[in-house]
Amino acid sequence: MSAVIPIFDVEYEQPRESSGTVCDTKFAWARVPVEPSQEQRAALKDKIRRLLKERNAVMVSHYYVHPDLQDLAEETGGIVSDSLEMARFGRDHPAQTLVVSGVKFMGETSKILSPEKRVLMPDLDATCSLDLGCPIDEFSAFCDQHPDRTVVVYANTSAAVKARSDWLVTSSCALDIVRALKEAGHKVLWAPDKHLGSYIQRETGADMVFWNGACIVHDEFKAFELEALKKQYPKAKVLVHPESPADVVALADAVGSTSGILKSAQEMDAKEFIVATDNGMMHKLRTLNPGKVFIEAPTAGNSATCKSCAHCPWMAMNGLAGLAHVLETGANEIHVDPSLGLRARLPIDRMLAFTAALKAGQAAGSLVPNIGAA
């Protein structure tokens, strides 16, 4: 039997073991919200809209959460984006309360960039395999073993790991930053996603050592199944997130971050796309490209109960009921120790300055004097 945990006025249920899906992970079981009825959805959305105004709050939602939370964020003046843009938007928005629909490291990053604001999340147990798989004590010891290396960490990490790093990167800027570090003579210690790190090493030729981490969603994509799917859709272009295994990346027509995948889908001359990233992206892809067809890349073979199960179980914990509950009660507030937050902000600000200069047209090579270990 499924254990049922009442939260607000919609129930959450614990998935049964041996489900055969991506939710089968050594890290944790996720509470997945039961889909509310149309009447419940309408009532919850109305309540959330009202509470956002009353609480001087704004929603920031990740591309991987439920479409209701994506649409509601945009309808109410918030944003749907990747983790860093969520935090940057919240920092620059006048609202004093940020409601972050995503996973815990995203809430922490928002708090680091907006320490004076209240940051709430629908479910504080919503986390990330990359974050969980990179505990600060073990990571710090790993860094101590390589004192000559510049520490570069991915956004999918805790505030403590960010504070131990020299640079923070996202999948959209990692190539530019690591390439610039290489040109400046730096050797890199990379964490936590080994697939993304290996992709960056192949593209840049940088001297890198890797933490052994992986995203439980992207790690499940299968190259041999993707090849078979390509034969079924010979005109389809393949869009792959670089957190995927190397043999999957090798089959891609375009490799990119969430925003990069969106851009490729809009700009490429194709009507069909096979997409290897979390299937939460399908909502935005289909919304922005109504005349195109998007097919989920396979994570398992024909004998599996789930042919393509590419959805983060922790992202799935975000729901309308939890969102309404935290707005009403102020529960699930994110706290980051102020001194830790200051240290964690340094690599974030360093990345933001680099990407802003690059966007303004400054060549990466000219930014090399500004690049170095903290």
Summarize this entry quickly.
This protein has 374 residues and is an alpha/beta fold.
Describe this structure in words.
The protein is an alpha/beta fold. It has three domains: 4-127 and 314-329, 3-Layer(aba) Sandwich (Rossmann fold), CATH 3.40.50; 130-216 and 337-370, 3-Layer(aba) Sandwich (Rossmann fold), CATH 3.40.50; 218-296, Rossmann fold (3-Layer(aba) Sandwich). The protein has 15 helices and 15 strands. It has helices at residues 38-54, 67-75, 83-92, 104-113, 129-132, 136-144, 159-163, 174-183, 194-204, 223-232, 246-249, 258-267, 281-288, 320-329, 338-359, and strands at residues 4-7, 10-13, 32-33, 57-62, 79-81, 97-101, 118-120, 150-154, 167-169, 188-191, 208-210, 237-240, 254-255, 272-276, 293-296. The strands form four sheets. Strands 5-4-6-7 form a four-stranded parallel sheet, with helices on both faces. A four-stranded parallel sheet has the order 9-8-10-11. Strand 6 (97-101), helix 4 (104-113) and strand 7 (118-120) form a beta-alpha-beta unit. The longest helix is centred in the C-terminal third of the chain and has 22 residues, at 338-359. Mean pLDDT is 89; it is low at 1-29.
